[in-house]
Write a structure and sequence with these properties.
Helix content: 25-40%
Order of helices and strands: EHEHEHHHEHEEHEEEHEHEEHH
Oligomer: single chain
Distance between the termini: 25 Å
Number of domains: 3
Structural class: alpha+beta
CATH topology of the largest domain: D-amino Acid Aminotransferase, Chain A, domain 1
Radius of gyration: 19 Å
């Protein structure tokens, strides 16, 4: 038996998702025989340090989004020298900041959508790319704030006028086709899954987390060459960022001109969701790894940066 602290909650837009991930992971850890302490994280650093005193044997980081997935909490745990799950400070920070991550991916020769970082004032002044294009925050997850600007869309500037995700905004050319995601465990790309939103036009926050919001098809029914490309791109992205443990790569597969089509890397999530509707557990389950075994594997790879 070991003493494991599960961090959950946080202060990002993904707080509620994190609470669910944390509860699920804590229950699995208890079934594995660990003594689990559930810690709901806030901006109160003193309370967090007190909650981690005496230090546990390991921290299972179930936080998502800003503050918990961007190197901030990882830095605190490094100072305390408490081993923690998922990626370290640098990989977490780079992966969460989309423009920086794209620079790393481009240097690694990975296929990316054309895009740029612009100010909110530039977007309000007019189109910065030919339509359709995608507007997204530079450092949010779970599709928070994402908007597809299509021909004839005259209302989207109202969203930008109410924008609460910072003055810098990422804009990317829209990639038609299908939504794929790949789970990476250590040095292995485990499998590729296709996501088909059922009630929404895109794979947004509701489609991700509402029961029945999307259909998960595992393995993704794509051409074998495309499937292999998805795995290769995702593993190379994981390695380029310096990730450890589990990560999840999100991709678009443009098969509109036939198969095998064009595979485009969107981003890498260093702390993917662990809720009942999450993707990595679905991919792992297909390969014979149930949720408890997945949690065990993640915990076994807890570490501090060298």
């Amino acid at each position: 038996m070991s003493r494991v602290a599960v961090l959950m909650g946080g202060w990002s837009a993904e707080r509620e998702v994190s609470l669910v991930s944390g509860r699920e992971c804590a229950a699995a850890l208890e079934k594995l025989g660990h003594l689990v302490k559930r810690i709901e994280v806030t901006r109160d650093l003193g309370k967090l340090v007190a909650d981690l005193t005496p230090p546990p044997d390991a921290v299972f980081n179930a936080l998502h989004g800003r503050g918990g997935e961007d190197g901030t909490i990882q830095g605190v745990l490094e100072v305390l020298r408490v081993p923690y799950t998922h990626s370290g400070v640098l990989a977490s920070a780079v992966a969460m900041h989309k423009p920086t991550a794209k620079t790393v991916f481009a240097a690694a020769g990975l296929p990316l959508a054309e895009g740029k970082t612009v100010s909110r004032a530039e977007l309000l002044a007019g189109d910065v790319l030919p339509r359709p294009y995608v507007v997204k925050p530079i450092n949010e997850g779970s599709s928070v704030g994402v908007h597809i600007v299509r021909d004839g869309d005259s209302e989207w500037t109202k969203d930008v006028a109410r924008w609460t995700h910072g003055e810098e905004i990422m804009v990317e050319r829209y990639i038609p086709g299908r939504e794929l995601t790949v789970a990476v465990m250590g040095d292995r790309a485990l499998g590729a899954l296709e996501i088909r939103p059922l009630a929404a036009a895109m794979y947004d926050y509701t489609a991700k987390y509402a029961p029945g919001g999307s259909e998960h098809i595992m393995p993704a029914p794509v051409h074998p060459q495309a499937y292999a490309a998805a795995l290769d791109i995702s593993l190379r992205a994981h390695q380029a960022l310096g990730c450890r443990g589990v990560s999840r790569a999100d991709l678009r597969y443009d098969d509109t001109a036939g198969e095998p089509g064009r595979m485009i890397l969107l981003e890498v999530n260093t702390q993917p969701g662990m809720t009942p509707t999450s993707l990595v557990p679905d991919i792992a389950r297909y390969h014979g790894i149930d949720f408890i075994e997945l949690v065990r594997w993640i915990l076994e790879h807890a570490a501090c940066d060298p």
